[in-house]
Request: fold
Amino acid sequence: MFDLRSISKSFGSLKALDQLDLQLKPKIITGLIGPNGSGKTTLINIMTGIYAPDSGSIYFHQQNLTGESAECFAQKSIARTFQNIRLFKRMTVMENIMASLVTKEKNKRNNWFSYPFTRNKFNLNKAHEVLEIMNLKDQRNLFAEELPLPLRRKLEIARALVAEPEVILLDEPAGGMTPSETFEMAELINLHVAPGRTIVLIEHKMDLISKICNHLVVLNHGEKIVEGETHEVLSHKKVLEAYIGI
Ligand SMILES: Nc1ncnc2c1ncn2[C@@H]1O[C@H](COP(=O)(O)OP(=O)(O)OP(=O)(O)O)[C@@H](O)[C@H]1O
Ligand SMILES: [Mg+2]
Reply:
């Protein structure tokens, strides 16, 4: 369904991705791991139209999306979260979620005059449902900037979920969290984010990776070095060398 062919992306003389091939397996969680600077976030940026690749092609359900805008990728039902959280800080939790619906509607209708349409009962119910499953109900009237980090990360996921995407790309959803917060995040992803969806999960925390990923892709210096079933990949010699440094 999501098919990347020979993707390269450089920043000046730095090759962030080098002829990378990736075919996402539908409705499973694919872990994307690799050392710092190996190109993981760049890959997600390419899979959401934030960057266009220098060369290579991107197909989604056989449709060529190479060079299309981020709005176009969002319209195709591809959502993401950010490693460096990007919320509307001075908007409440509920407003942040509703804003995600406004963007969805705007993309659909190609204008910004759709705000009233998003405040219908159906959308409000959907927002409440997402607040409930992400355990954010009690915080719904707080400003995003008032939330502690784990809740800000949950809100990012809630914003992605409310648009009911087919694919969600999660960039370090447990970044900066304690082990117990990470455990709770793993539960939430397993129970409420993954079912019925295709997920890519970038993470450095191997316990989270091994708990929730069925399939793993390992990047190093912008190249895919190993891919396969999670437990096999984690014990692969190349992965231990590149990632864990032994
Ligand atoms: N917009 C940019 N301009 C210049 N260089 C960039 C840009 N984005 C990424 N890079 C560089 O590309 C390389 C890959 O970066 P990327 O953020 O994709 O790595 P990563 O695997 O996500 O790392 P981390 O685990 O630290 O998040 C790095 O060397 C980074 O400095
Ligand atoms: Mg990154």
